[in-house]
Amino acid sequence: MGRYIIRRLLQALLTLGIVLFLLHYLMALSVQVRGNPALLFFGGERVPDPAMLEQIERLYGLDSPCYERTGDPCLVPFVERLQRLASGDLGTTLQGNRDVGDLLAVYIPNTLRLFIISTITVVTLAMLLGTWAARRRGSLVDHSVRATTILVDSIPVFLILLSYVYIISVPLTKWARGIWGTDSFMGQFFRPSYNPDYPWVTIIMPGIILGTVGLATLTRLVRASQLENLGADFVRTAKAKGLKERRITMVHVVRNSMIPIVTGVGYLFAFMLSGAVLTEGVMGIPGMGRMIFQAVQRQEINLVLVGLTVSAVVVVVVSLVVDLLYAVLDPRIRYD
């Protein structure tokens, strides 16, 4: 087990290294093709003083001559960037000269709240609906669950968000505030935008909506996995012993169906990173997705790289946790 963890950690570090290099190379190509982003520091059509421009380029690591050669991977700036990241220096933004670490301290907690709620939503709904459909295979309930989840999954997240904001949220907020008051839980729960004074309450509905991403896929995975176990010998033995259906389902079927489900949850978590950009943008949530989107618009190269690096780290860590959970869920699995 220990050797496996070390091996997986080394693989994770190698994967992160490759991802960081690709991000750096794409950034270098962007600078080489589109021009020096340090010019944005001066704004508009203003012609900067050469000495001042050189100082700004040196400050933000854009003074290397490799940025003038299209296709050059700029290995020296890449190594210097890795050294700064390893030392905890995340740099500053081009516009406003704000510390990137301070920005992450604001944005990451909001994205974590969103992901916690969305993950709980998709796992809970998929387990309930998938188990319900598996127990009633071929019935109207089974067909209805599959059709409903596929219908929900086929609707783009941004369309669900806009429909909620402009059709559902406004009347419900007005109704709730008229009964319980503006500062009440219900008065803030249906709010159409994020409120920093109520970070958890106003992020519940966006998290639930984001949780619909991949619901159909995970529900079908739960159903297929449980159907496979319902016909297994250990389930027939449990029935022959006279165990109750609920105990058979929870102890034998659900637990032995968790390995493919945990794998699906790991992939969905990574997939929801893209949905977070839309969710945070529409609902006005100051999170990582919105930060990266705005940084791309403003050509804040360092902010984009740091944000994508954090996202890559999260995906790699989730993949590692999923692998380690296999042995916990199934004692027969051993990492030798």
Automatic annotation (TrEMBL):
PROSITE patterns, per the entry: ABC_TM1
UniProt-listed GO biological process terms: transmembrane transport
Keyword hit for Transport: yes
CDD domains given in the database record: TM_PBP2
Domain of life: Bacteria
Membrane topology of this protein: Multi-pass membrane protein
GO cellular component: plasma membrane
Protein location: Cell membrane
This protein's UniProt keywords: Cell membrane, Membrane, Transmembrane, Transmembrane helix, Transport
Transmembrane stretches, start-end: 112-133, 145-167, 198-218, 265-285, 305-329
Pfam families: BPD_transp_1
Domain ABC transmembrane type-1 positions: 108-326
The family this protein is said to belong to: Belongs to the binding-protein-dependent transport system permease family.
Designated name of the protein: ABC transporter permease
Organism name: Glycomyces paridis
